[in-house]
Design a protein that fits this description.
By secondary structure, this protein is of the alpha/beta class. Helices cover 31% and strands 22% of the residues. It has helices at 15-26, 61-64, 76-88, 132-148, 165-180, 213-227, 262-270, 289-292, 323-337; strands spanning 7-10, 34-38, 46-49, 52-55, 57-58, 69-72, 92-95, 126-128, 150-159, 234-241, 248-256, 275-277, 298-304, 312-319. The structure holds NADP nicotinamide-adenine-dinucleotide phosphate.
């Protein structure tokens, strides 16, 4: 670890920021080299960091001075302003929002998938990370692509409310409590009641398009990530908001370039250290959001194919959206970028 590196976690009071602090603590990153920043709303709030207590400061050119690495866990509109501010202050910036994912001048990096992009010179000091769903899809598809080739991936993502941050968590809590007390709750964060319901819309729709920004993001981000592999599967699907707090479930249909028996597909997935195969359905062993919380691996199971279409593989996976799908990527890309990943 570079002993002089100073890190600022911006958005430290949020769902992802909280996970970033846990990840840095696990890696023994020293508290005196860590700044926890957020908006003015959180000024003075105290956050536990192991035995220590860190005081939240509002982010500004002043509070960014002397910081070598800025981990941005803020909404996209805030990141668009804060990334150039941190860059101007001389820091490396890693952003987990959607602000720069489509920007061809900013590298889109999934650590462990295309980390080499961090070693290739690029303009500016900003790096963007993919969404939690793209993180899971790319990690699952890559061993299958290497073994059989992959032409197409259809995804249904069942997304826990923590994907909408602290406000999403609070809304499900309030709605569940209201419904259990016989009251009809109001919807503020989500377009409809999510408590005891399913909503086939996560985030806003694209302008003049039937796709949501979340869904369109998977297609675009996978195209950018897989371009480095020389083979780009078409990834598309539906994002559904579900009434769970943490963890996303993904139902995937993968069209391989050659037919593969399920045993061979399972062996290919087992070969990836980023995956945990849970696939003994008769013993009720398969991925569950409740099992994946705080696990840096992506869980996969329910592998199936059928003789009429032997090139299609059906599976179910889960990912810890805020941890594996966001915070881990921020910390791993950041430390590598700052030359401190030892
Ligand atoms: N949650 C997930 O599973 C997930 C997964 C992948 C990517 N992401 C992305 O990660 C980012 C953070 O998401 P989250 O779920 O952690 O949201 P969150 O719980 O709502 O937290 C947002 C954080 O950003 C801070 N913030 C908001 N506006 C700010 C501003 N103008 N200046 C400085 N700080 C500001 C908030 O500070 P205050 O507390 O002071 O308001 C809070 O600390 C988003 O871009 C999201 O799309 C989230």
């Amino acid at each position: 670890m570079n002993e002089n590196l100073r890190i600022a976690v911006v958005g430290a009071t949020g769902v992802v920021g909280t996970e970033v602090l846990s990840t840095l603590l696990l890696r023994d990153f020293p508290a005196e080299q860590l700044s926890v920043l957020a908006s003015e709303r959180s000024e003075g709030e105290e956050l536990a960091y192991g035995e220590e207590t860190l005081e939240v400061e509002p982010v500004s050119a002043e509070t960014l001075r002397g910081i070598g690495l800025v981990l941005l866990a803020t909404p996209a509109d805030a990141s668009r302003t804060l990334a150039p501010l941190a860059q101007a202050a001389g820091a490396w910036v890693v952003d987990v929002s959607s602000a720069f994912r489509a920007d061809g001048t900013v590298p889109l990096v999934l650590p462990g998938f295309n980390s080499e992009a961090l070693g290739t010179p690029f303009k500016g000091r900003i790096v963007s990370l993919p969404s939690a769903v793209t993180t899971a899809v790319a990690t699952l598809v890559e061993p299958l692509r290497q073994a059989f080739g992959v032409a197409q991936v259809q995804v249904t993502a069942l997304m826990g409310v923590s994907s909408s941050g602290q406000r999403g968590l609070k809304e499900l809590e309030q709605q569940t409590s209201a419904l259990l007390s016989g009251r009809e709750p109001e919807a503020h964060v989500f377009p409809h009641r999510v408590g005891f319901n399913l909503v086939p819309q996560v985030g806003p729709f694209m302008a003049n398009s039937p796709w949501t920004e979340e869904e369109a993001g998977w297609t675009l981000e996978c195209a950018r990530l897989f371009a480095s592999k020389g083979e780009v599967p078409v990834v598309a699907g539906t994002a559904v908001q579900v009434p769970t707090f943490f963890g996303h479930g993904l139902s995937l249909h993968v069209r391989l370039k050659k037919p593969a028996p399920v045993d061979q597909a399972r062996a290919a997935l087992k070969g990836s250290p980023a995956l945990k195969v849970l696939d003994s359905p008769t013993e009720k062993v398969y991925p569950l959001p409740s099992l994946v919380t705080a696990d840096p691996t992506i869980h996969v199971g329910r592998l199936r194919s059928f003789p009429q279409a032997p090139e299609w593989l059906t599976l179910f996976a889960t990912v810890d959206n805020a941890g594996r799908g966001a915070a881990l990527n921020l910390v791993e890309a950041g430390l590598r970028l700052a030359g401190s990943d030892s």
